[in-house]
Amino acid sequence: MSFRSPFTAAAVFLGAAALTAAQPGTVSGKVTAKGLRTSADIVVSLEASGLKVTAPKAPVEFDQKQMKFIPHVLPVVVGTTVRFLNSDTVAHNVFSPEGGYNLGTWPPGQSKDHVFKKPGVYTQLCQVHPEMEGYVVVLDTPYFATTNKSGAFEIKDVPPGKYKLVAWSEKLKRVEQDVTVETGKPTTANLTMSK
Ligand SMILES: [Cu+2]
Protein backbone atom coordinates (compact mmCIF):
# COMPACT_ATOMS: atom_id res chain seq x y z
CA MET A 1 0.00 0.00 0.00
CA SER A 2 1.39 3.38 -0.93
CA PHE A 3 -0.99 5.48 1.17
CA ARG A 4 0.68 8.43 2.95
CA SER A 5 -1.33 10.62 5.21
CA PRO A 6 -1.19 14.37 4.64
CA PHE A 7 0.35 14.61 8.13
CA THR A 8 3.33 12.52 7.06
CA ALA A 9 3.74 14.69 3.98
CA ALA A 10 3.59 17.81 6.16
CA ALA A 11 6.19 16.37 8.53
CA VAL A 12 8.54 15.60 5.64
CA PHE A 13 8.06 19.12 4.29
CA LEU A 14 8.77 20.73 7.69
CA GLY A 15 11.85 18.59 8.12
CA ALA A 16 13.22 19.80 4.78
CA ALA A 17 12.43 23.41 5.73
CA ALA A 18 14.36 23.03 8.99
CA LEU A 19 17.37 21.72 7.09
CA THR A 20 17.42 24.73 4.79
CA ALA A 21 17.04 27.26 7.62
CA ALA A 22 19.91 29.71 7.99
CA GLN A 23 23.04 28.06 9.33
CA PRO A 24 26.00 30.16 10.46
CA GLY A 25 29.07 30.21 8.27
CA THR A 26 32.76 30.77 8.76
CA VAL A 27 34.84 33.57 7.30
CA SER A 28 38.51 32.81 7.05
CA GLY A 29 41.50 33.91 5.04
CA LYS A 30 44.86 35.54 5.17
CA VAL A 31 46.05 39.09 5.60
CA THR A 32 49.29 40.00 3.86
CA ALA A 33 51.01 42.80 5.76
CA LYS A 34 53.29 44.48 3.22
CA GLY A 35 56.51 45.82 4.67
CA LEU A 36 56.12 44.16 8.09
CA ARG A 37 58.12 41.22 9.44
CA THR A 38 55.00 39.65 10.89
CA SER A 39 51.35 39.57 9.88
CA ALA A 40 50.30 38.90 13.48
CA ASP A 41 48.05 41.07 15.65
CA ILE A 42 45.84 42.42 12.89
CA VAL A 43 42.21 42.71 13.98
CA VAL A 44 39.76 41.46 11.35
CA SER A 45 36.07 42.11 11.96
CA LEU A 46 32.76 41.87 10.16
CA GLU A 47 30.65 45.00 10.29
CA ALA A 48 26.98 45.48 9.42
CA SER A 49 24.23 47.75 10.66
CA GLY A 50 22.14 46.49 13.55
CA LEU A 51 24.58 43.95 14.94
CA LYS A 52 24.10 43.31 18.65
CA VAL A 53 27.03 42.87 20.97
CA THR A 54 26.94 41.42 24.46
CA ALA A 55 29.87 42.19 26.70
CA PRO A 56 31.20 39.18 28.60
CA LYS A 57 30.21 39.14 32.27
CA ALA A 58 33.74 38.30 33.39
CA PRO A 59 36.56 40.79 32.84
CA VAL A 60 38.91 40.10 29.94
CA GLU A 61 42.53 40.02 31.10
CA PHE A 62 45.28 42.15 29.60
CA ASP A 63 48.59 41.25 31.16
CA GLN A 64 51.90 43.01 31.62
CA LYS A 65 54.68 40.47 31.64
CA GLN A 66 58.39 40.67 30.84
CA MET A 67 57.89 44.37 30.15
CA LYS A 68 55.26 43.76 27.50
CA PHE A 69 51.51 44.04 27.14
CA ILE A 70 50.17 40.54 26.47
CA PRO A 71 48.50 40.15 24.05
CA HIS A 72 50.00 43.03 22.13
CA VAL A 73 46.58 43.72 20.61
CA LEU A 74 43.38 42.87 22.50
CA PRO A 75 40.07 43.07 20.61
CA VAL A 76 36.92 43.30 22.76
CA VAL A 77 33.30 44.31 22.25
CA VAL A 78 31.78 47.54 23.54
CA GLY A 79 30.99 47.37 27.25
CA THR A 80 33.75 44.91 28.09
CA THR A 81 35.61 45.27 31.36
CA VAL A 82 39.33 44.81 30.79
CA ARG A 83 41.36 43.73 33.80
CA PHE A 84 44.91 45.06 33.59
CA LEU A 85 47.22 42.65 35.40
CA ASN A 86 50.82 42.98 36.49
CA SER A 87 52.64 39.63 36.28
CA ASP A 88 56.11 41.18 36.40
CA THR A 89 58.50 41.77 39.28
CA VAL A 90 58.35 45.55 38.89
CA ALA A 91 55.61 48.14 39.14
CA HIS A 92 53.75 49.12 35.96
CA ASN A 93 51.46 51.96 35.02
CA VAL A 94 48.68 52.03 32.45
CA PHE A 95 47.39 55.10 30.67
CA SER A 96 45.69 55.72 27.32
CA PRO A 97 45.81 59.02 25.40
CA GLU A 98 42.66 58.16 23.39
CA GLY A 99 40.85 56.77 26.43
CA GLY A 100 41.71 59.80 28.56
CA TYR A 101 42.51 57.63 31.57
CA ASN A 102 45.47 56.89 33.76
CA LEU A 103 44.86 53.86 35.96
CA GLY A 104 47.89 54.68 38.12
CA THR A 105 50.99 52.68 38.94
CA TRP A 106 50.68 49.42 40.84
CA PRO A 107 52.87 46.60 42.11
CA PRO A 108 53.07 42.99 40.87
CA GLY A 109 50.06 40.82 41.67
CA GLN A 110 47.51 43.62 41.72
CA SER A 111 45.14 44.61 38.92
CA LYS A 112 42.97 47.50 37.76
CA ASP A 113 39.72 47.33 35.79
CA HIS A 114 38.53 49.64 33.05
CA VAL A 115 35.22 49.47 31.14
CA PHE A 116 35.42 50.34 27.43
CA LYS A 117 32.14 52.03 26.54
CA LYS A 118 32.86 53.32 23.03
CA PRO A 119 34.23 51.64 19.90
CA GLY A 120 37.72 52.67 18.87
CA VAL A 121 41.41 51.95 19.15
CA TYR A 122 42.93 52.68 22.56
CA THR A 123 46.70 52.76 22.84
CA GLN A 124 47.93 51.44 26.20
CA LEU A 125 51.13 52.96 27.54
CA CYS A 126 53.18 52.72 30.74
CA GLN A 127 54.71 55.83 32.29
CA VAL A 128 57.38 53.73 34.01
CA HIS A 129 58.52 52.03 30.79
CA PRO A 130 58.16 54.29 27.73
CA GLU A 131 58.98 51.39 25.39
CA MET A 132 55.85 49.50 26.45
CA GLU A 133 52.93 49.74 24.08
CA GLY A 134 49.74 47.75 23.58
CA TYR A 135 46.31 48.22 22.06
CA VAL A 136 42.75 47.57 23.10
CA VAL A 137 40.52 47.55 20.01
CA VAL A 138 36.87 48.05 20.98
CA LEU A 139 34.38 46.75 18.42
CA ASP A 140 30.61 47.01 17.96
CA THR A 141 30.44 43.64 16.24
CA PRO A 142 30.59 40.19 17.83
CA TYR A 143 32.35 38.78 14.74
CA PHE A 144 36.10 39.32 14.92
CA ALA A 145 39.47 37.61 15.14
CA THR A 146 43.16 38.46 15.28
CA THR A 147 45.66 37.13 12.79
CA ASN A 148 48.46 34.73 13.64
CA LYS A 149 52.07 35.21 12.52
CA SER A 150 51.29 34.09 8.98
CA GLY A 151 48.30 36.43 8.77
CA ALA A 152 45.67 33.70 8.94
CA PHE A 153 42.36 34.40 10.65
CA GLU A 154 39.05 32.63 11.21
CA ILE A 155 35.74 34.10 12.31
CA LYS A 156 33.23 31.45 13.31
CA ASP A 157 29.45 31.33 13.76
CA VAL A 158 28.62 34.18 11.39
CA PRO A 159 24.94 34.42 10.41
CA PRO A 160 24.32 34.57 6.65
CA GLY A 161 24.27 38.09 5.23
CA LYS A 162 26.28 40.90 3.72
CA TYR A 163 29.13 42.36 5.75
CA LYS A 164 32.02 44.73 5.46
CA LEU A 165 35.21 42.93 6.38
CA VAL A 166 37.51 45.41 8.09
CA ALA A 167 41.18 44.88 8.89
CA TRP A 168 43.02 47.07 11.39
CA SER A 169 46.76 47.09 11.99
CA GLU A 170 48.71 49.40 14.27
CA LYS A 171 51.19 50.13 11.47
CA LEU A 172 49.24 49.77 8.22
CA LYS A 173 46.32 51.51 6.53
CA ARG A 174 42.87 50.15 7.34
CA VAL A 175 41.40 47.94 4.63
CA GLU A 176 37.77 47.09 3.86
CA GLN A 177 36.20 44.49 1.64
CA ASP A 178 32.59 43.40 1.03
CA VAL A 179 31.83 39.80 1.90
CA THR A 180 28.67 37.74 1.68
CA VAL A 181 28.18 34.83 4.05
CA GLU A 182 25.93 32.12 2.65
CA THR A 183 24.09 29.71 4.88
CA GLY A 184 26.32 27.01 6.31
CA LYS A 185 29.11 27.75 3.86
CA PRO A 186 32.70 28.76 4.45
CA THR A 187 33.69 32.11 2.99
CA THR A 188 37.28 32.94 2.08
CA ALA A 189 38.59 36.50 2.09
CA ASN A 190 42.19 37.48 1.53
CA LEU A 191 43.39 41.01 2.19
CA THR A 192 46.55 42.96 1.54
CA MET A 193 47.54 45.85 3.79
CA SER A 194 50.27 48.39 3.18
CA LYS A 195 51.72 51.52 4.78
CU1 LIG B 1 55.70 49.27 32.76
Structure description:
The model has no long low-confidence stretch (mean pLDDT 92). It contains 1 helix and 17 strands. The protein is mostly beta strands and 195 residues long. The strands form 5 sheets. Strands 1, 13, 16 and 17 form a 4-stranded mixed sheet that branches. A 4-stranded antiparallel sheet has the order 12-2-14-15, with no helix packed on it. The chain has one helix spanning 6-19; strands at 25-33, 43-47, 60-65, 68-70, 73-77, 81-85, 92-96, 101-106, 111-115, 120-125, 133-139, 144-146, 152-158, 161-168, 175-181, 186-188, 191-193. The radius of gyration is 22 Å and the shape is globular. Helix content is 7%, strand content 48%. The structure holds copper (II) ion. Residues 92-93, 126, 128-129, 132 line the site of copper (II) ion. Copper (II) ion is lined by residues 92-93, 126, 128-129, 132.
